[in-house]
Fold this sequence. Notes:
Helix content of chain A is 50%, strand content 12%. Chain A is α+β, with helices and mostly antiparallel strands and 391 residues long. In chain B, strands 1-2-3-4 form a 4-stranded parallel sheet.
Amino acid sequence: MSTEQKELTLNMGPQHPSTHGVLRVIVTLDGERVIKARPVIGYLHTGIEKTMESKLYYKALPCTDRMDYLAPMSNNLGFCLAVEKLMEIEVPEKVKWARVCLAELTRLNSHLVWLGTHALDLGAMSMLLYAFRDRELIIDVYEACGGQRMMTSYIRIGGLSHDLPPDFEKKVRRIIKEIPAKLNDYETLLTNNEIFINRTRDVAVISAEDAINYGLSGPMLRGSGVKHDLRKASPYSGYENFDFEVPVGSKGDAYDRYKLRLEEMRQSLRIIEQALDGMPEGPYRAHVPGVVLPPKEDVLYKMESMIFHFKIITDGFKSPKGAVYQGIESPKGELGFYISSDGSNKPNRVRVRPPSFVNLAALPKLTEGGMFSDVVCAIGSIDIVLGEVDR
Amino acid sequence: MGLEEKIPDSIILTTLDKMVNWSHKRSMWPFGFGLACCAIEMISSFSPHFDLARFGMEVMRPSPRQADLMIVAGRVSMKMAPVVKTLYEQMPNPKWVISMGACASSGGVFNNYAILQGVDRIIPVDVYVPGCPPRPEQLIEGILTLQKKLEGESVKDVRDEWGRRST
Lengths: 391, 167
Ligand code: SF4
């Protein structure tokens, strides 16, 4: 072998402890420097979009949970809002507030897992254990609402699947009370930690201009100093009623994004508190006969409700012809659902705009020219979920 | 252990089997590899709340060559299937497999072109854990079931190329 050869091609994944799932990256190295990093995706391709086309609108909903499985409620919300837009359903006030509350809890959940795994990748093992310990508080709420720890499918077309559970407020208040102290704990462990700073400062940098050109969204975009948040830019589900800040970074490196996500968690707590304080009374589902399932109590006692229930479950509802797009600010960025309908009771095409997928496309930009060990940091700080990348 | 082939059939092992099984049981090293949503619940069972360490199983190995239990946590896509098979083959004998979740066991809600309808089509499975995703308690129950199953094994069992006892 000639000694001239300088480049080394290395395969990372699809089974690798730090790729957050089944991501594969083919890295070309010159010594320790990365010349090229090319993500190879599709190892978790589930055919979710295609599956949704063959299902009634109601039955397509559980598929959305399984895309970004760290933020199931955000996915539910995005899909439901899109279908509601298509069907022109106006949901009751209470539903809106409850949805905001749940979506923000989901943001906490997702960011906690991100924090744990990202810190673990950089060598802070205890962070993973702390994050998963505190995540249980949120999972508890999910379980009380939907009866399931992760795949709740609690947010339904036209409302919620049940009324909020009686101990909902108590459980959420506990989160509001306990999580801030925990966040401070995390900060003590990481923010001024020499190792953590060395591993993240000036690593995986992306400028504001590049971030926009790559179509990044969420913390990846805001970390570079672009103040764009769909909750403010085009409010949905009543976000305009809430008072919160959109934190931004300055440099666009991994450390900035870490600080930003922690701040976002604090802001989420603020929103949750406001949502709890101002939660209006009212029905938990819109009253749209033939489209939205009638409340369970009515189904048991009223003839018409029973008939509607039966019809919706077996036949679904016919949607008007047309196409809608609804984007929401999921914990990872702009999550969009594009639904095109041909007038039948199933969607003709569902296209998901996954934030993880688009953000992952910036990986070569983030890593090329840097050190090899920083590839792991870059992947972690993008915050990808392979279920959403591959769908 | 390398010795077992040398033991003639006329010798019956009892105490040695017991000891070997006991140590297998109490120090099984799972292969830390997650595929999809179920992997998060798998990590949850290692977390302080559920604390799998109580059963001597918390040492997650990132490399298949150091592991003896594969927990297939999540859906196996057609593209991933050959990889899962290779990983299984790379694990040293004796080895065990838990199929975690509806997807790994039967394809789950995804009966379509992209998902392998059950990981037992490519590798042998010892314990199936149902659920979508299974609760951590369910996974722990699955692991305990595997431990029970293990008690019946003997070091003299001949294993085929799949790592199964061919008795
Ligand atoms: S069984 Fe359910 S939770 Fe597990 S991988 Fe399949 S869809 Fe995800």
